[in-house]
Amino acid sequence: MREEQDERPTRPDRPREKQRGRIVTRRTQMQTSTTDQRLLDTRGPSDWVHTDPWRVMRIQSEFVEGFGMLAELGPAISVFGSARTKVEDPMYAAAERLGGALVEAGYAVITGGGPGVMEAANKGASQAGGVSVGLGIELPFEQGMNPWVDIGLNFRYFFARKTMFVKYAQGFVVLPGGFGTFDELFEALTLVQTRKVTSFPLVLIGTAYWSGLLTWLRETVLADGKIKPADLEMLHLTDDVDEAVEVVRAVEQSHVPAGGDLSVDGLAVDGPNGDGAGGALPGGPPAQGPNGGPVSPD
Ligand SMILES: C/C(=C\CNc1ncnc2c1ncn2[C@@H]1O[C@H](COP(=O)(O)O)[C@@H](O)[C@H]1O)CO
């Protein structure tokens, strides 16, 4: 290995010095060991592996591996939902159908790689002959990847994993879930609302499950002025797996920014009340961009 630390020739008018990159050291600050020696000498204390600078390297490696694995994935949709959904639950069957339908529509399916809805969506995707991706997370109660993940990567850090869900997907479809699912949904909502991502459909499957949340968002959060009417239009609510896939396709093919008018090619992307308004919420306002107009990509 090449030595990064050069000792400069001594000049009578200057103290001896060593240079490490752009750092110059002299007198007591000059290290006598070389970089290679310090790297290869394993006899020192190992506390450094628990320090933040070292963690930064591990975090960086998660981004590098994630980007490397997913960069050539092609169009994909991230599917979220409860890790606790049982095989007998109708939502398991819905997630399985969704995985297959997304593959038939030309998408890879990305999940958290765990049990429940994740497993079902991976199963549907894999059995349909598509690309079934699992982005697992290290948890205290380790579960391992579900058996239907065909390409998997395990993460230590939630935030690195969450970047992959957004960066390599064209949209999210979210089935009933708990805190983990809410976290993923609300992160996406924030990213769309703040226009960090554009043309990003967010579809909720399960009207009975999600209606209470949507009512609260409209009657409390919106009524209290904490969000704008158009913010609610980012969400599309349905019970129909095929409609969920159509919403995703319509947004992607039209490249209409998320939150924009989703009426495309005669497909009125509709709320559950079938009023053709394009809004997700019963009685919600008609679809338009967050500021009443289209959103320009960065
Ligand atoms: C809690 C159980 C298993 C945990 N295993 C998980 N594996 C992978 N991803 C997970 C897991 N648990 C949560 N997630 C992520 O959050 C979402 C689901 O969370 P929820 O609270 O269950 O809604 C999911 O989309 C994952 O990304 C039980 O067996």
UniProtKB/TrEMBL annotation:
Keywords: Cytokinin biosynthesis, Hydrolase. Residues 26-37 have a biased composition (Polar residues). It is an enzyme of class 3 (hydrolase). This is Cytokinin riboside 5'-monophosphate phosphoribohydrolase. Residues 1-20 have a biased composition (Basic and acidic residues). It comes from Actinopolymorpha pittospori. It catalyses: N(6)-(dimethylallyl)adenosine 5'-phosphate + H2O = N(6)-dimethylallyladenine + D-ribose 5-phosphate; 9-ribosyl-trans-zeatin 5'-phosphate + H2O = trans-zeatin + D-ribose 5-phosphate. Coiled coil: none annotated. InterPro entries: LOG, LOG_fam, LOG_family_nucleotidases. GO terms for biological process: cytokinin biosynthetic process. One of its GO terms (cellular component) is cytosol. It comes from the Bacteria. Its EC number is 3.2.2.n1.
